[in-house]
Amino acid sequence: MSNIYININPYIRHRIYDHSDSLKNNTVLGLGLHAYNSNDNRIMGGIFVQTNDAFGVHSKEDSTLGKRIVFGLIAKYNITGLKVEK
Questions:
Q1: Which of 61, 70, 55 is nearest to 20 (CA)?
Q2: Helical H runs in the chain?
Q3: Per-residue b/e over 68-83, b at no fewer than 16 CB within 10 Å?
Q4: Partner of 65 for a Cys bridge, out of 12, 28, 52, 70, CB 3.0 to 4.6 A?
C-alpha cells in the first residue's frame, strides 16, 4: 500500500495595498496539488495555478502585477516538527 497521498488545496487571498498610488486592493484565487508522504509527514512537492487579479481590478491599466494566471512548482520541504510518535 502506498503512503503517498495527493492533497488538493484551493485558496483565496485578498491583498490590501494601503496608501498605494499604483496598486489597488485585489483578490487572488488558486489551486494547489501537493504530494504528501504519510510515513514521515513530509511534503514531497507539488504544483499550483493562481490568478494575480481574480476580478480584474487592474485590467484596464498597465500590467502592474504581471501575468493574470501563474503556474508554479513546489519544491520538497521536510516538516519534522509534526511527526507523531507511537
A1: 61
A2: none
A3: eeeeeeeeeeeeeeee
A4: 52
Q: Which three cell numbers stand for residue 32?
A: 494547489
CA distance readout (Å), 41 to 4, 29, 55, 57: 10, 27, 36, 39
pTM: 0.63
What does the angle CA 3 – CA 82 – CA 85 come to, to the nearest 5 degrees?
A: 75
Residue where the block lists cell 483565496: 12
Compute the radius of gyration of the chain from its Cα atoms: 17
